[in-house]
Protein 1
Amino acid sequence: MLKLKFQDKLIEAGTDEAGRGCLSGPVVAAAVILPKKFKHPLLNDSKQLTEKQRIILRPFIEQYALSWSVSYVFQEKIDEINILQSSILAMHKSIDSLDISPEFIIVDGNKFNNYKDIPHETIVKGDAKYMSIAAASVLAKTYRDDYMEKIHLEFPKYNWKQNKGYPTKQHREAIREFGITQYHRKSFRLLPEQLKLDL
C-alpha cells in the first residue's frame, strides 16, 4: 500500500526520472504535489504497471494533482555532465516548474543535490512506497515514451517505438549496422565491443 506523504506538516513534492539507462534520448523527470485525499487503485511504481495502466493514470494525475511538471535533459547535456547529474538536473528543473513551491521534497533513489534551501529525503524504491513519487514516475515514463515514439519516425531502424532507447539486442544491432544518430548518448557504452572499435 502506497503512503500519501513522508511527513505531514509541509507541502511535499515527489520527484522521479525515467530513461537513465537508455542509450538514446533525454532523461525525463517529473515532480508532483498531491492533494490530501488523492488515491487511484492502479497507482504504483511505473515499472510495475503496464503501458495501458500508465496511459489511464496520466490524465488522472494531471487532473487531480495540486501541481505537476515534467522536464527534459537531452543527450548533449548528458554527455557533458554525466547521467547522474543530468537526472538530478531534470528533477530540479521539474521542481522549478511547479505552480506551488514545495516545502519538502521526496526523491526516488539515493542521490540528490540540495534544491535551494528546501529539505529533502532520498528514498530507495520510493516509487513503490509513496504516491507522489509513483505519480512522478508515471508522468516521467509516459512523457519520455511519447518523445521516443516521435523521434522513432525520424529513425525507424532503431525501433525506439518499441525499445524506447533502452539497450536491447535489436537496438545494439542497429547501432552496429547503421552507426549512431544525433539522439544517441555518445558518452555511453553503446556497444559491448566499443572499447575495441575505432569509433
Protein 2
Amino acid sequence: MNLVIQSPEPLAAAHTKPLLGLARGSRAEAVDAHVLRIADADPAQRPDLEVYCATHALDYAFVKPGLTLRDFGLVAMDMDSTLITIECIDEIADFCGLKAEVSAITEASMRGEIKDFNESLIARVALLKGLDASALEHVFAERLTLSPGAEAMLDAVQAAGLRTLLVSGGFTFFTERLKARLKLDFAYANTLEVVDGKLTGKVVGEIVNASVKARTLREACAKVGIPASQAIVLGDGSNDLEMMAEAGLSVAFRAKPVVRASASVAFNHVGLDGLLRLF
C-alpha cells in the first residue's frame, strides 16, 4: 500500500527516515511541503504508525496504489462537525439558554453512548419548543462556518465529475442553504416544525438516523448509477457508521473514537482537503 502522511504545518524532513522505517516501505517522496508518500508500506505497522503520528500531530492513511479521485462517483458528507464546524442544534439551543444541556446529549449521542438516535433527537428538539424561528437564521448567518478545506475539497471533487450528497441528522433549514451555496447535488435532513413563526419542539416526518443515512447514500448512488463501493463518505459521529460501512472509502473527520476505529482513514489534524492528497 501507499502510506500518505499529512501535516497541517510544513512537514519536517526529520520525519522521513523514522516514518519510512516504521512503515517498512521501499521509498519516500515529498508530494508537497505538507505531504509525504511512502511506497510499499506494510499495513500491519499501523499500531506503531498510530503512536508516532499521534505524538507528532500527523495524519496517516494507507491507500491502494494507483487509486484516483475519478475511481469514485460520489462524495457523501455529514453536516454538523464535518462539513461545518458547529452542531446546529446546540447553537439553536443557546438562544433559549439550554446549550449546555443540549450539547451534553448531542455529545453522548455522537460518541455512541445513546443507542437510540431518534429518542435523542426528539428529546433535544422538544427543548426548543416556543423558540422564535428567527433563531435559525441567526445561527446560519452568524455562527455557521465551513470546516477547514471544505471549499477546496468540494471544488476539486466537482471538477473531477463526482456528485455530492449532504446527509444530516440535523435540519433542512441548514442543509438546503448549504446545498444552494455550495452547489451540491443532493441534500437530506430532518425538518423542524414551525407554527406561527415559532418552533413547536417537533420534527416533521421521518427522522434521519443511521439507517436512513445509509439508505439515502444507496439511493443517491442509484441515481448517479454507481454502486455504494464507488462512494466516499465523510463523517464524525456514531450515526454515520452505517453509511460509512457501505462506502468504498470512509473518512473520519475530527471524529469520535468509535468512528475513527471503523473508518478507512482518519483526519484528526488536516482539513477536509486532505482527501485530495490521498490520491
Protein 3
Amino acid sequence: MSVRKSDYEIDSVYLERWSPRSFSSKEVKENTLLSLFEAARWAPSAFNFQPWRFIIARTPEDREKFMSFIGEFNQTWCKDVPAFALIISKLTSDSGEFRSHAFDAGAAWGYLSLEATRKGLITHPMTGFDFEKAREVLNIPEDYAINALVAIGYQGDKDALPESLRSREVPSPRRPVAESVFEGAFGESLK
C-alpha cells in the first residue's frame, strides 16, 4: 500500500510507482524485462509514428559500456542495476521534422514505468549522464534525440546506498492538481 494519497480516485499503480535508487543485483528475466517494452509499444503517438527506440544493457559488458557515460553522482547508486534502457526518439519522419517525438517517447516511458510497477520492478529515470558520449559509445544516429536513461530492476535495501542518499529513499510528493491545471488561460484557477 502506498504512502502517497491522491486528490481524486485513481488506480493505485500511479501512487505505487516512484523512483528508488537502491537496486538489488537480482537479474530481471528476459520475458519480464521485455514485457515492459511491450507495454511501451502500445503508447499513443502522433500519426502512429512511434518515434521511440530503446537501447538496453543487461549483460555485464553492455552495463559497463553504459557506466562509461553515466555521471559520477549516478554511478554512486546504480552499480548494482541489472538492466538499463536508453530512451531515444526519431526527430524526423518522411514529412520532415517530427515535433512530438519527445512527447510520444515520454508516453512510452510512462507505460513502461507503470508496467514495471505492476511486475514488482522499480525504475529510475535519469539525465545525469554525458549525452554526447552515449551517442558515440552506442552509435546513435544524429536524427535521433537522446531523452533519458532508465535503471530497471528490483528494489534493494536502502542501507546499501551511500549515507547521503538514504534519507531520500522515499516516494516523493506531488503538488495538488489545482496547481497544475489551469482553466481557460494560463494561470487561471479551476472554476
Protein 4
Amino acid sequence: MMSLSKLPHTGTTIFSVMSALANEVGAINLSQGFPDYDCAPQLIDLVTQAMKDGHNQYAPMPGLLPLREQIAYKTEKLHGAVYNPDTEITITAGGTQAIFTAICAAIHPNDEVIVFEPAYDCYAPAIKLMGGTVKSMELEPPDYRINWEMVKRLISNRTRMIILNSPHNPTSTILHEEDIKELEALVKNRDILILSDEVYEHLIFDGQTHHSMARYPELQQRSFIVSSFGKLFHTTGWKLGYCLAPAAMTAEFRKIHQYMVFSVNTPMQVAIAQYLKNEESYLGLAELFQQKRDYFRKGLAQTRFELLPCSGSYFQSVQYNGISDEKDTDFAMRITKEFGVASIPVSAFYSKGTDHHVLRFCFAKKQETLDKAVERLIKL
C-alpha cells in the first residue's frame, strides 16, 4: 500500500511523550511549558462578560481590530516600531500556528532555511512540508551563542529564510546587540526573510534588553515576528497569538491563514484587547518570572546538577555529567519514573539527536510545586 506520510520520520512530540509519562506515573510535570496556576481572575471575568455580551461568532479573519490596535500600541511603545493594525498585524491560533503559516507563505520547494539547534520542534516539519531544505547549525552548551562566521558559510543563493528564537526555547539564552549587528550585516543586500519567534518576549531577566526584530528597521522590513498571549497571560489553552509583518508579507501570510483557521476565539480576543490596556499586565512579568527562576535555581543548587545560564523564558536547563552517563532520553524517563519529576531531554531539539547530557525544566509553576520537585531531585 502506498505510504500516506509526508513526514515519515516524525513521531509524537517529546512534549506529549513526557507529559503522558508524567501523568501515567504521577510525576511532577516540569516538562511541557505551561503554568500550573490560574491566569488573572479579571481576565476570566472579561472573557465571561464577552460571551454574555454576545461575542460568540466568527471574528474578522485578521482578528478583532481593537486587539490589533492594542498590539500596535504596545509594539510602538516598547520597540519604537510602527505597525498598521489593518494591514500588518494578524491574530492567530497561538504561536505555533503563526510560525507554520509564515513558513507556508514564504517557503517554496528547494528553498533553504537556516535553523539554529536546539530548536523548537515545529520549525523543521513545516519547512519540509513546503518542500524546503533545513540547514541546521548546532549550538553548544553552556552559552549556546551563535557563531556568525559559521552562519555565513551556510548562506547560498537558495537561502530564503533564517529562523531566530529569543528568548530561546529550550536553552533560555537571548540575542545580544552584537548578534543583531552580525545579522544586519549578513542579510544586507540579500533577499533573505527572517522568522523571529518571540513568544517569550516579556520574560527577560537581570535588566537585559529584548532585541526584537521590530527595533531594527533593516530587520523589521523582512521579518515575520511571532508572539503568544498564551505564554504572556498564563493561558496556553486559549491558543491565541499574533504575527507582525510588513504589509506585503502579511498579505501572503493571510492567504494561508484564512484557509488554515480563518479566525480565532472571539471572546478571548475581546477580553485580551481590554486587558492589555493595563500595561502592568505585561510589564510586570519579567519580575514575576525572575523571582521564580531565582527560587528554582537556589533549590537546584542543592542537587548534583550543573545549572546552565538562564537569561529569559521560563525554562532552566541543567547538565547531569556528574550524575550519569546515560543518554538524556533514558535519563529523563528514568528520573520521571524513579524520582517523580518529568523534564525534557534537550537532544529532542536537535535533528541529529545530539546529546550534551542536558535536561530542560519548566519553572512556570507554583512555589510548592517547585519545592516538591527540588526535594525529589536532591535524592538523585
